[in-house]
Amino acid sequence: MGVSRRTVKSAYIITDMITNTKPQITGIILAGGKSSRMGQEKGLVLHQGVSFIQHIIEAVQQITDTIIISTANPNYMQFGYPCVTDSIPDCGPVGGIYTGLCHSKTAQNLVLSCDIPLITSETLKHLIQCHRDEYQVTYYENTPLIGCYNTTVTTRFKEHLQQKRLRLQQVLASVVSQTITIPKHIQYTIQNINTPTEYKKAMLCN
User: Fold this and answer.
1) CA-to-CA distance for 89 and 103, rounded, in angstroms?
2) Backbone region of residue 142 per phi and psi (left: phi > 0; alpha: psi in -120 to 50; beta: other values)
3) 140-155 burial by CB neighbour count: b if 16+ within 10 A, else e?
């Protein structure tokens, strides 16, 4: 458990989901990686004729209409959502999350990598429903890039960036976070696909 800090109440998120109204939450999709192992821009790789990131967007749209794409690649502008460039470049996911949180206008934020084309709204809703007031970050075990992040962690991310401490797990260890178990029936939806081989394997398993 990390350092205790003040958190913003998030019970309204669960209430909104119960009443079938879209909660006040921002989807932040990280698409700033180099994609060297994939051999091409990961978020734009096609799965069933649709780009990885479009699959992710469609899952997020079932929860919120507010989406930010953290990227310097202008090709992502085609999806119709704000694209923001890292304010501190070349700092990996920590830099992308920090930039997204700085541009967010909501307390709660879904932070997602762009290499999870099998993600579903069910998986994201389960994550949000497991988030509790006393935690600043909630994420699936071993998968911090499918997480619910409160903007109260923004300052801590900035501190780590300034100190060049760029390991995401180090940042998460310094805030109040929790990991949640992935229900068996949705485990396939959180697969990170970083290489063509991983994509082929994911398709064989599904």
Assistant:
1) 15
2) left
3) beebbbbbbbbbbbbe
Which of residues 69 and 15 earns the better pLDDT score?
A: 69
pTM for the whole structure: 0.88
* Torsion angle defined by CA atoms of residues 89, 195, 57 and 51, in that order, rounded to the nearest 10 degrees: 110
Burial 60-96 (b: 16+ CB within 10 A, else e): beebbebbbbbbeeeebeebebebbebebeebbbbbb
Q: What is the pLDDT of residue 179?
A: 97
Domain 11-205 is in which class? alpha beta
What is the model's pLDDT at position 41? 87
pLDDT at 105 over 50: yes
CB 13 within 8 A of CB 131: yes
